[in-house]
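Kindly go through the entry underneath: sequence plus fold tokens. Please state briefly how this chain folds according to its tokens.
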Amino acid sequence: MKENRTGKKFKSLREDAKYSQEKLARLLNCKPEQVVQWENGEEEPSLDQCMLMCRLYGMTADEMFSHINSDYLINDNIKDEFLYESSVNRILKRRQYL
């Protein structure tokens, strides 16, 4: 079973910011159920939602996804997540958010 590090990170960041799932959903213009799905590792937020979370939490995408390291990439399922992070960073840089 795949470890849900990204979902745990999303939850930790939200809780550190003192946001409820409902409040974060309002800020990101999505449903609270989506936030639950991200935190449970069932779904992933869109790139725009990741960009907004980075701005809300005052961090870069690199910082948000810092839990992804080379040891973690051994699992093939995780390579997709690493590629997702790279895509987020490219889009954020292109839009001049980084």
About this structure: The helical segments are 5-16, 21-28, 32-39, 47-57, 61-64, 76-94. Residues 70-74 have pLDDT under 50 and may be disordered. The chain is about 65% helix and 0% strand. The radius of gyration is 13 Å.
